[in-house]
Write a structure and sequence with these properties.
Largest interface: A-B, 28 and 27 residues
Largest sheet of chain A: 6 strands, mixed
CATH superfamily of the largest domain in chain A: DNA primase, PRIM domain
CATH architecture of the largest domain in chain A: Alpha-Beta Complex
Structural class of chain B: alpha+beta
Radius of gyration of chain A: 20 Å
Strand content of chain B: 15-25%
Helix content of chain A: 10-25%
Largest sheet of chain B: 7 strands, mixed, barrel
Distance between the termini of chain A: 74 Å
Shape of chain B: extended
Number of helices of chain A: 4
Order of helices and strands of chain B: HHHEEEEHEEHEEEHHH
Radius of gyration of chain B: 28 Å
Structural class of chain A: alpha+beta
Oligomer: heterodimer
Strand order of the largest sheet of chain B: 1-2-6-9-8-7-5
Chain lengths: ~300, ~325
């Protein structure tokens, strides 16, 4: 007797709608809410119309949780072995490794389903696209509180940044990070360099920190208790942020949720925006984000 | 090496007595702690027969159908100067399914070897000694004769020391039951059964099985005698060592009344037949299918409700994306 019958995978095919083979659908990904992989995949399918435009040609870093939140997890920059044909790949020479890196591009629904099936709960994207990888098309302020400051203080800081930039005629978009803070994003026109974008973001942080006792603009002070740090350092080649509508690996199955500025009021919490609540949001606050590409620092 | 070495090694494997304890085989077992407050109340009425409320196993229970195998021990129950010759049969059969590990390529069974952790060589039995780890990586070494000298001698006796009310025994300490059958001693055996039955009592004492001495209880069950080995007192954790259990709040009267009502409503007869081993049944079914040459499909459909949701999401999203 041979043992070849012993390893039949539990693959579930929906071949007429998608070529993706789904596995272990009953596996619990978020134990606290009993959210299964099936629900995670369903979530990403439902959010695909909002997620896919943003992810198009944007190199991904996968954050995979094969045993769900609380189990072992790993980041994956290089496309996994056996990456199917429908997944687009972006190849560039690695910076620290002496070989080519193959980034996954989530350019179609099948890839998004495939990623969800890999238990890549979190999708992290670069701030540039493959067309001009060395030139950012997004500026990111990553704002996080240090206790005892709270999400309310993050909101206050975000509103100050918004006021500063709108005075300079710059429109910016806001989303929860899905963890403790907020991400503020400025869509950029072509031709920016990472250094100048980083310097601009740093300057905004320094200006606000000068006037506010709670805000810090320097990494060295970022963990000081009772502060809010405006992190400008992610504005660099190859660095990433959680994609809008990406799930986060938190107990509460939170989502990095795009918000309208009107809804950014004291009393809301990152946990309010999770896999079960976000689906009922009818409108996508980031719908027209790339219709308003702006030039900064010039 | 000597014969004694061989038999000593066998005890390290799974013996019919269940897992062998780590304690020194020669140490006398502490007096078993058996009396509980609750049981003691019933035991208080002297010489009153106590009815055992143990449900008879269902007749179609497969474990009951199987006929007893050969006895694995014979000896005597010794009460003072009275001897009752008996044989011991196993009563509990581990029904869990066991698999052999095979080499995938050629389907041949694999065996375990004693491999030296230092140089990876396979070591023959004759070159082995036993070591007791006294601190990490440090062992006290025993030659076979040294352990044999302190092993309790199996004198083929079940030594009865006392009689107690069976219901006063704490089942927490019960380990493995064995069936005692008369060995050309039907009259003496029957006398013991009847006397114990009418007094509602059980005999407690000791037995030495292979190389370990156990406290035991002998009681009447289904018209015969059953010997149950008991755990040593220090093998069982005490609930008193749990901080969470000290100072539990007294429940409110109303809540208690409600809880009691629920319990009363859910009260009923308990039948183990209601709790089959589903995994084992499923595996045995698969074994039979494989033997019959049937192909086994292990694709598990997701829950239909959830799958419907996923399918619906997929259809709707594909439609939305097509519109764009």
């Amino acid at each position: 007797m041979t043992g070849d019958s012993g390893r039949v995978g539990k693959e579930q095919s929906f071949s007429d709608l998608t070529p993706v083979l789904l596995t272990n659908l009953d596996k619990v990904m978020y134990p606290a809410f009993s959210v299964t992989k099936q629900e995670v995949i369903t979530y990403y399918i439902r959010m695909a119309p909002r997620i896919l435009p943003f992810l198009f040609n944007r190199p991904l870093t996968l954050h995979r949780f094969p045993d769900g939140v609380g189990g072992e997890a790993f980041y994956e920059k290089d496309a996994p072995k056996k990456t199917p044909d429908y997944v687009d790949i972006f190849t560039i020479p690695g910076k620290s490794v002496d070989r080519q890196l193959h980034f996954v591009l989530c350019n179609n629904l099948d890839t998004l389903i495939w990623l969800a099936n890999l238990a890549s709960l979190e999708l992290h994207t670069t701030l540039s696209t493959t067309g001009s990888y060395d030139s950012p098309d997004i500026l990111l302020f990553d704002i996080d509180p240090e206790p005892p400051l709270t999400f309310d203080d993050v909101i206050d800081t975000a509103l100050i940044i918004r006021e500063h930039l709108e005075n300079a005629g710059i429109r910016l978009f806001v989303k929860t990070s899905g963890k403790k803070g907020l991400h503020l994003v400025v869509p950029l026109s072509g031709g920016h360099r990472f250094e100048e974008v980083r310097a601009f973001a740093h300057q905004v942080g320094k200006t606000i920190a000068r006037d506010s006792p709670l805000v810090v603009s320097e990494f060295a002070r970022s963990r000081d208790p009772g502060t809010v740090f405006i992190d400008y350092l992610q504005n660099a080649r190859g660095k990433t942020m959680a994609a809008p509508y990406s799930l986060r690996a938190t107990a509460g199955a939170t989502v990095s949720a795009p918000l309208n500025w009107d809804s950014l009021r004291h009393g809301i919490h990152p946990e309010d925006f999770n896999i079960r609540t976000i689906l009922s949001e009818n409108e996508d606050p980031w719908r027209d984000i790339f219709d308003t590409r702006q030039t900064i620092g010039r | 090496m000597t014969q004694g070495r061989q038999s000593g090694d066998k005890t390290a494997r799974r013996s019919p007595q269940g897992k062998a304890g780590k304690k020194n085989a020669g140490s006398p077992g502490p007096e078993p702690v058996l009396t509980t407050g609750a049981g003691g109340e019933k035991a208080g009425k002297k010489d009153q027969p106590v009815t055992l409320v143990i449900p008879e196993p269902p007749q179609d229970d497969p474990a009951q159908k199987s006929t007893p195998g050969r006895p694995f021990w014979s000896g005597t129950i010794t009460i003072g100067l009275v001897n009752v010759p008996v044989r011991l049969h196993t009563m509990v059969r581990d029904q869990s399914i066991s698999f052999r590990l095979l080499h995938r390529e050629d389907g041949q069974p694999l065996r375990y070897d004693r491999v030296c952790t230092k140089d990876g060589r396979v070591i023959p039995w004759a070159e082995t000694v036993k070591g007791y780890e006294v601190q990490k990586g440090k062992y006290v070494v025993f030659e076979p004769g040294e352990l044999k000298a302190v092993m309790p001698e199996s004198d083929r006796k079940i030594r009865i020391e006392k009689f107690v009310y069976y219901l006063s025994l704490d089942p927490t300490y019960f380990e493995t039951p064995y069936i005692l059958v008369p060995d050309r001693s039907e009259e003496a055996y029957s006398l013991l059964v009847t006397a114990l039955q009418e007094l509602g009592r059980a005999a407690v004492g000791t037995i030495t099985l292979r190389t370990k001495e156990y406290p035991v209880v002998v009681h009447v069950y289904q018209g015969g005698l059953v010997l149950t080995t008991l755990r040593h007192a220090d093998e069982v954790a005490s609930l008193r060592s749990f901080e969470q259990l000290t100072g539990l709040p007294a429940p409110k009267d109303t809540e208690l009344a409600l809880a009691k009502r629920i319990i009363n409503e859910l009260s009923g007869d308990f039948s183990l037949a209601d709790y089959p081993d589903r995994y084992q049944d499923a595996v045995m079914k698969l074994v039979k299918m494989k033997m019959a040459g049937e192909k086994i499909v292990t694709v598990e459909p997701p829950h239909p409700e959830q799958a419907k949701e996923l399918m619906q999401a997929l259809q709707e999203t594909i439609a939305t994306l097509a519109r764009k």
